[in-house]
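Batch manifest, entry 17 of 40.
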Amino acid sequence: MKLESSGSCKKELVLQSEQLAKSKSQRIRAAVFEDGDLMDVFEDEGGSSHLVGNIYRGRVENVLPGMQAAFVDIGLEKNAFLYVGDAIPSPSRFEDEDKGSSVIQERIENILKPRQELLVQITKEPVSTKGARISVNLTLPGRYVVLLPQVSYIGVSRKISDAQERARLKDLAEKVKPEGMGVIIRTLAVGVDGEEIAEDIGHLVTTWQALERKIPHVSVPGLVHKDVDLVSRLVRDWVDQDVEKITVDQEETAETLRQALREIEHPAVKRIFVMPGEDLFGRYGVDDEIRKALRSKVWLKSGGYLIIQQTEALSVIDVNTGKYVGQRSLEETVVHTNLEAAGEIARQLRLRNLGGIIIIDFIDMAAKENQQQVIEALEAACAVDKTKSQVLGLTQLGLVEMTRKKVGQTLAVRYTAPCPTCDGSGRV
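Output type: structure tokens
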């Protein structure tokens, strides 16, 4: 769905509040548009819909040497999963995030014992029959940095590509980093001065000190720290220099946003528009886009289309010319379709929140330079995604292989449920 843009709108946020049926609580929904295209949808229902970032006191229930993992009771419906690599407090775990996972030398049975108590943080939401994934390497995200309260380490977001800016930010971090703690500089810190970064770190250190005082008084299993609500996460993670408009349906939400934006002196405080009682998701076509994204077939503007199928192990995307017949040659028609598909694939991955292994069957191209052009277009389209992804290139069968980090639940899990009659197969 393309918004009618007046001027050169780069990014727009739309927030809508909804009263939940048979409940006094409200659901906040947010949509992110970039250049008029819907890219991300978020929801926050009470306190149970967003668990990543929450910190718990947990108790080890089972240690499984054969899986080199443990199951930990943190007070949720299903026990959380702790892999051996996440059971070791170490700065190397954050280095591995940048360089790829390394071989873990320790064994889980030498690290953990049943009934042992741990302080852990959720890194991946529970999905289907799987419990949440957790880590003992705790992080507290701020606007410009992520604080690592238990390890000494300095890192800079890989999305900051300018070598001079990376060096400047790393030098700043070394000067303001608290002793015995670490920081990772976030992408939003580009161009930000040292005073603002130091203030962000100071706020996070204060939060951690409050947590340390609270921990001994929390029963096991129990929640120690809950990540901020959706409105605060949007300000922290999404409101950057590209945001030109924020539209909300409640004055209360607008005032919360204004207060948060004033604290960081962001010009978007003057770009908040309130439309009381308006069905914003209907007005902006968000729900229609969600319905389209729950289908396997996605039409391209040229007349080509994608077929997207998600399985337990991976997601598969097939590109077809469909109604598009081109003008001059078959190769030109194919390249045009593939280039258009590359951009739409990146959008669909974000909108559907697909993660793990992704296999893409682009239409066969004869020229090597055309193949490379399509791969580079896919890489460029995925580069703006806040979720880490990597395009690995062509397989021996001519398929494009890529990965995208699994974060949270997919759109299908959030908005659909398996059919109780056919057990989700969809066949009669």
